[in-house]
Design brief:
The structure holds two protein chains of two kinds. Chain A has a single domain, classed as Helix Hairpins, CATH 1.10.287.3510. By secondary structure, chain A is mostly helical. Chain A is 75% helix and 0% strand. By secondary structure, chain B is mostly helical. Classes of the chains: A mainly alpha, B mainly alpha.
């Protein structure tokens, strides 16, 4: 059996890689990809704790399913926003979208 | 070391490597393809954790829908796919520091936690996890409210995406 610690360290590393992508990338779609990696890391944690702590209660898997739904909604709205922004500004580089900057 | 552990190490290394390529690849389309590989690695981890339904959902929704949607968005915002300018903003060193510090803190806290050596309890063959998950999702004692809220959220996101991306000219 895989030790729980391996799964948790794997999820932590995946989360930090995603966080780096979110903070460092310029392109808005690349930022969204970083968010996807972070959500996946969270899901790995949820499923790992479900398996190792309470496999007879399905709360962990249900939570993971809800995270799936939220991720799908977030990507749909996010990409629609980026396409709309690109149509008007001809760029989706995050540091050039400063319309609301004071 | 059991074969299961070997498989996990290989899959974890593949997933983390693909994740690194996602955040560092210069070409966005390559980024999206590496993202598909990382998501597939996470699906294999679900299989190793005996969450088969989630593995299937991961492949269908993440790889089949989300990653393809991303590739479409990259193609629709065309001239940024292979941009020659810098792909990181000027604060990337701070981002690296923050990510490394967060990982160090998480690893330190995890290694100090005494529940980390927990052994996975065996799931009896009569306990069908897919059936139990389905029952939990729709039973009133279970999570039917969260399930319904998630479906309303998906509908709202669908309409919202349509409205936002609508070309009014």
């Amino acid at each position: 059996m895989i030790p729980l610690s391996w799964l948790l360290f794997f999820a932590a590393a995946l989360f930090c890689i995603g966080l780096y992508g979110v903070l460092a990338r310029k392109n808005a779609i690349a930022i969204l990809m970083g968010i996807e990696l972070m959500l996946n890391a969270v899901n790995v944690n949820l499923v790992a704790f479900w398996r190792y702590r309470t496999p007879e209660m399905m709360a962990g898997q249900v939570f993971a399913v809800i995270v799936f739904a939220v991720a799908a909604a977030e990507v749909a709205v996010g990409l629609a926003l980026f396409i709309s922004v690109y149509r008007r500004r001809k760029t989706i580089a995050a540091d050039e979208l400063d319309l609301m900057k004071w | 070391m059991t074969p299961l552990q070997m498989i996990f190490i290989l899959v974890a290394a593949m997933t983390l490597g693909a994740g690194l390529m996602v955040v560092t690849a210069r070409n966005l389309v390559h980024s999206a393809l590496w993202l598909v590989l990382a998501l597939f690695g996470v699906a294999i981890v679900y299989v190793l954790l005996q969450a088969g339904f989630l593995a299937v959902v991961q492949v269908v929704i993440y790889i089949g829908a989300i990653a393809i949607l991303m590739i479409f968005a990259i193609m629709l915002t065309r001239n940024i796919a292979s941009e020659s300018g810098p792909r990181f903003n000027e604060n990337w060193s701070w981002a690296l520091v923050i990510a490394l510090v967060l990982f160090g803190t998480l690893a330190w806290m995890l290694s100090g936690w005494d529940g980390i050596a927990a052994q996975a309890p065996a799931i009896s063959p009569r306990f069908d996890t897919v059936r139990e998950l389905g029952l939990a999702l729709v039973s009133p004692e279970g999570f039917v409210l969260a399930f319904e809220v998630a479906s309303v959220l998906l509908l709202a996101a669908l309409i919202g995406a349509l409205v936002v991306a609508w070309d009014r000219r």
